[in-house]
């Protein structure tokens, strides 16, 4: 990890580093975009013929018959895993489901003036595709995090794709009652979900994280099929002036082990804490090749002049994960995917079992959106209902606004009702 200071001789270097961090995001996608375009176009035009060719080439699919995972396979995986893991998956599912249920928006109506009723209807999407990565590590937690909010929202069809699903992932699918699961990954899986083939019916929205190829494919199909977000490498920021070095370093290492490109940052006023964390992180990552690589590439300790500067920098970075010292720190937090408060709130707890979703915005997108939630799986439909009394009250000013805009048809549609009302006395 590298230490930089925002004051003194290191100020210029720190300013350049922060500016570069603010520009992080989708640039890496450009390198894979040509290949992804070919794959997506192939699946869109040729359907199963291209899909199965890519699945064989990239996913090692043995045969067409193996494309769809059977419910019997999922049930067998559930029975085969350790009972303690079954309990852990069940506990995590219960926590995630409970949180999503509390997030679910409600339908409502109100009467702002006599003769007018306004409100909203909450309706689920018709179908969703959940992308579950299957690269370095099995990720049953991602299946829980993407499928459960969809179920809580009432989505009728939840399809899961994962190229080489681990038994733990299949077990999680059985736990949730998933009936549609495909051994597919990469850009071709995204294309199949977006456009449909003979084997895979298209969906209304694709959610879930993936590698650069998956993210680039989601960007390509986003105008034809809704997506949740473009998720990049994991990010962690710890903003602390009184944290414990071992706790901070362990969280930095934990998130760094996701990806060699993961971003791990400590922001503090204390030089002694900064140096302790660097030493502790080096020690804790010595046998963790991925974490060590990420910390060497993207590990940063920023020593600032005061906590006000620390807070400003934190919000400028808009990180995926943030740890702060105390509950009072939430008052200044503006741009972040998910916040962890205090020394006992280990960030991996949020990855698995707290309840809030671990699919979070990266690349600075926390400036404009939060993490995946049940709200990503519903539509808000607004409703308005007038009586004669209501149109008499609000019709005249509405007609004036229409005429001011030169939309005489709009005004006419309102005035014809007002005239009908007057003619009836």
How many strands? 14
Average pLDDT number: 95
Helicity, as a percent range:
40-55%
Distance from N terminus to C terminus (CA atoms, Å) equals 81 Å
Number of helices: 16
| CATH superfamily placement of the largest domain | Nitrogenase molybdenum iron protein domain
Low-confidence stretches: none
How many structurally independent domains?
3
How is the quaternary structure best described?
single chain
Strand order of the largest sheet: 1-11-10-9-12-13
CATH class wording of the largest domain = Alpha Beta
Shape designation: globular
Please describe the biggest sheet, giving its number of strands, its sense, and whether it closes into a barrel. 6 strands, parallel
Portion in beta strands: 15-25%
Radius of gyration: 26 Å
Question: Can you characterise this structure?
Answer:
The chain has three domains: 2-25 and 232-355, Nitrogenase molybdenum iron protein domain (Rossmann fold, 3-Layer(aba) Sandwich), CATH 3.40.50; 29-97 and 114-230, Nitrogenase molybdenum iron protein domain (Rossmann fold, 3-Layer(aba) Sandwich); 387-423, no CATH class. The protein starts with a strand and ends with a helix. The model has no long low-confidence stretch (mean pLDDT 95). α5 crosses α7 (167-176), α8 runs parallel beside α9 and α15 packs antiparallel against α16 (408-423). The radius of gyration is 26 Å and the shape is globular. The protein is of the alpha/beta class. Helices cover 48% and strands 16% of the residues. The protein contains 16 helices and 14 strands. The protein has helices spanning 11-22, 29-46, 48-59, 71-80, 83-103, 140-153, 167-176, 186-195, 212-221, 245-256, 271-284, 289-298, 307-317, 347-352, 388-404, 408-423; strands spanning 2-5, 108-113, 116-124, 127-131, 157-161, 180-182, 205-207, 226-227, 235-239, 263-268, 299-303, 321-324, 338-341, 378-386. The protein has a six-stranded parallel beta sheet, with helices on both faces. Strands 6-5-4-7-8 form a five-stranded parallel beta sheet, sandwiched between helices.
């Amino acid at each position: 990890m590298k230490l930089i200071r925002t004051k003194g001789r290191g100020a210029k270097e720190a300013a350049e580093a922060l500016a570069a961090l603010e520009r992080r995001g989708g640039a890496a996608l450009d390198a894979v975009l040509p290949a992804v375009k070919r794959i997506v176009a192939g699946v869109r035009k040729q359907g199963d013929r291209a899909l199965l060719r890519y699945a064989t080439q990239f996913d090692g699919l043995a045969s067409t018959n193996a494309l769809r995972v059977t419910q019997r396979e999922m049930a067998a995986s559930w029975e085969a895993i350790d009972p303690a893991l079954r309990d852990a998956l069940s506990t995590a599912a219960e926590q995630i489901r409970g949180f999503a249920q509390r997030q679910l928006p409600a339908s409502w109506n109100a009467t702002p003036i006599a003769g007018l009723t306004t409100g909203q209807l909450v309706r689920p999407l018709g179908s969703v595709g959940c992308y579950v990565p299957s690269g370095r590590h099995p990720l049953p937690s991602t299946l829980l995090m993407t499928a459960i909010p969809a179920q809580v929202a009432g989505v009728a069809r939840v399809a899961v794709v994962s190229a080489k699903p681990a038994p733990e992932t299949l077990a999680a699918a059985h736990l949730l009652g998933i009936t549609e699961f495909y051994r597919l990954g990469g850009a071709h899986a995204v294309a199949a979900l977006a456009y449909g083939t003979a084997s895979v019916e298209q969906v209304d929205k694709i959610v879930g994280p993936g590698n650069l190829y998956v993210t680039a494919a989601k960007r390509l199909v986003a105008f034809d099929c809704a997506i949740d977000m473009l998720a990049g490498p994991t990010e962690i920021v710890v903003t602390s002036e009184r944290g414990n070095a071992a706790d901070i370093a362990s969280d930095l290492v934990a998130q760094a082990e996701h990806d060699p490109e993961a971003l791990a940052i400590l922001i503090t006023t204390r030089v002694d804490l900064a140096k302790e964390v660097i030493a502790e992180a080096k020690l804790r990552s010595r046998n963790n090749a991925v974490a060590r690589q990420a910390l060497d590439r993207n590990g940063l300790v920023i020593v600032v002049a005061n906590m006000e500067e620390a807070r400003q920098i934190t919000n400028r970075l808009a990180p995926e994960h943030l740890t702060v010292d105390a509950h009072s720190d939430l008052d200044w937090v503006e741009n972040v995917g998910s916040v962890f408060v205090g020394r006992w709130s280990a960030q991996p707890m949020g990855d698995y079992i707290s309840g809030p979703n671990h699919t979070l915005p990266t690349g600075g997108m926390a400036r404009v959106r939060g993490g995946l939630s049940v709200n990503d799986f519903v539509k808000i439909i607004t409703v308005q209902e007038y009586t004669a009394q209501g149109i008499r009250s609000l019709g005249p000013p509405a007609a004036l606004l229409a005429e001011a805009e030169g939309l005489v048809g709009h005004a006419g549609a309102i005035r014809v009702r007002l005239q009908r009302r007057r003619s009836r006395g």
